């Protein structure tokens, strides 16, 4: 059974999500969040920075990434840089709470360093690092994090983090795998834009080729959608 919430626009979705992060952070000493990249989170982070700068105790928040492009942290395509520009530079979050992927390093080294960082800084539950919250986006091809349909087998990799590659650009990516994503306490898809509607319809209604889309492999996510993505 899918849990789905539909919003008029990205701002309403962002405010809802900000309140949710605020509520979850009040109940805990620390809150670990794996962030997604791409354009949707930009609007979410802008709202978080603007409306929750003083409301959320950012000392409690630990930020990670669900995937990262293998580029330097100053590169315009870096998910880390996007988060710095739209959120981290605008809130008082301690630098030791930022756990980025070292995208500037060779991909195998970046992947193994991130695995070590996850194992060192997250609580281990049944031997696996566990996030409190994982935020995921979905591409119009049904990918999530950087697990793309043509590499869907990476989802079930035995490692919690895998080297991947964008199908069109060939860009090297480091991505969390299903093993750690499906181990999180809560997982939220934040999906906006009408280009997502066709695959979303297949996934939410378990029809067509939904099984070939990595986003369909996420267990029990909450879907936070704008009207366009929901086809409303
Ligand atoms: C990335 C993301 C990726 C993204 C989807 C949706 O690094 O690009 O992690 O999985 O979430 O491609 O991106 P948009 O929100 O830009 O549509």
User: Would you list the SSEs in sequence order as H and E?
Assistant: EHEHEEHHEEEEEHEHEH
Instruction: Tell me the Rg in angstroms.
Output: 16 Å
Q: Oligomeric status of the shown chains?
A: single chain
Task: Categorize the overall geometry.
Answer: globular
Describe this structure in words.
The chain has 232 residues and is α/β, with parallel strands linked by helices. 29% of the residues lie in helices and 20% in strands. It has seven helices and eleven strands. It has helices at residues 10-26, 40-51, 79-86, 107-121, 178-181, 197-204, 227-230; strands at residues 3-7, 31-35, 61-65, 67-69, 124-125, 128-129, 133-136, 161-165, 172-176, 186-191, 222-226. A hairpin with a 6-residue loop joins strand 8 (161-165) and strand 9 (172-176). Helix 1 packs across helix 2. The radius of gyration is 16 Å and the shape is globular. The chain starts with a strand and ends with a helix. The model has no long low-confidence stretch (mean pLDDT 97). 6-phosphogluconic acid is lined by residues 36-40, 66-67, 79, 137-139, 143-146, 193.
